[in-house]
Structure formats: C-alpha cells, structure tokens
Amino acid sequence: MSNIVAIVGRPNVGKSTLFNRLTESRKAIVDDMSGVTRDRHYGMAEWINKPFTVVDTGGYVANSDDVFESAINEQVLIAIEEASVILFMVDVNTGITDLDDSIAAILRRSRKPVFVVANKVDNNSQRNDASVFYGFGLGELHLISSMTGSGTGELLDEVVTHF
Ligand code: GDP
Ligand code: MG
C-alpha cells in the first residue's frame, strides 16, 4: 500500500470521528485486516483526485506496567511505521496531557511528516487555545472540527502534497 495516512492520538480525541468523515462514502472498500493488524482500521479516501488509505488506531494508552509492549500501543507503533503521513490528533478542550507528550516523543523519532491536528475546534473562540500545541515542536498545526468538518479541507490540501 502507498499513500497511507495514520491518525494517532490518545483515546477520545476524535480519531474515529475524523476517520468516518474521511472515509464516509467508501467505508466498505477495504476490509479490516486480520491477525496482527486487527486493531487498526483501514478505509479508503480521496481528495482532489488523489486516493489514499486512512488508518484509524485504537488510541495510545499509557500502561504503567509495560508502556511499550502492550498490544494497543504496539498497533499504534505499527501504524506509524507503515504511514506516509501521520495526523497526531489532540483535543483543544483539554490542552496537552502527559499521554500527548508520550506520543509526541515517539513521533519526533519517526522521521515521518507529522501534522498536529487540534480537534474539537467547533467555534472561533477556541482558536487561541490551540496555540499551546506549537509546544510539541512537531510539524504544522491544523485546527479542525471532526464533528462539523471545519478545517478538514485545508488539512487535506496539505496532506496530499506528500503523496
Ligand atoms: P477516538 O477515541 O479518538 O476515536 O474519539 P472518537 O472519535 O470516538 O470521539 C470521542 C468523543 O469526542 C465522541 O463523543 C465524539 O462525538 C467527540 N468528538 C469528536 N470530534 C469532535 C469535534 O470536532 N467536536 C466535538 N465537540 N466533539 C467531538
Ligand atoms: Mg476511536
């Protein structure tokens, strides 16, 4: 597969909501793969005549016993490995959490194009709150609302330049 966009982030930031929005009309084309990939969901999407695969991950979860070897984190690491572009999703309403920082550290080592996607920016009054995410020192910052679709077009315009 080529042109793979992986959506990573801690649980509840809105990854699956964005995945569903991007893959809406084509959801059934790619079945989820079995075996080792079972916790990553694949869908087909297209933007300006450029088709790509979107990967929704279960969400990176810190595990105090064994952070890096738990199954859920393993599939996030695989998704990062196979991605051509990574969307690192965070929640504008919570700011940066410890878990966000852990994921950012992994992404800094990935050498892949990373877009920091501040989700849940449903209205303009939240735009200033998102500037805190520049603190990751990772890639471009995009403000979106997966719920309303606001900002997703501008994000995709940039993402497809990497294909
Ligand atoms: P995931 O765990 O990262 O896959 O997150 P989900 O996509 O399951 O979303 C978690 C919760 O956030 C759900 O209640 C969504 O409806 C909500 N949510 C997702 N995107 C947005 C958004 O843009 N704005 C708001 N207000 N809520 C959102
Ligand atoms: Mg999800």
TrEMBL record:
**EngA-type G domain location, by residue?**
3-163
Q: Which residues form a coiled coil?
A: none
Q: Where does GTP 1 bind?
A: 9-16, 56-60, 119-122
Chain's role: GTPase that plays an essential role in the late steps of ribosome biogenesis.
Concerning its family, UniProt says: Belongs to the TRAFAC class TrmE-Era-EngA-EngB-Septin-like GTPase superfamily. EngA (Der) GTPase family.
Q: How does it assemble?
A: Associates with the 50S ribosomal subunit.
Task: Report what the protein is called.
Answer: GTPase Der
- Species the sequence originates in: Hufsiella ginkgonis
Q: What is the lineage of its organism?
A: Bacteria, Pseudomonadati, Bacteroidota, Sphingobacteriia, Sphingobacteriales
Included stretch of the parent chain: 1 to 163 of 433
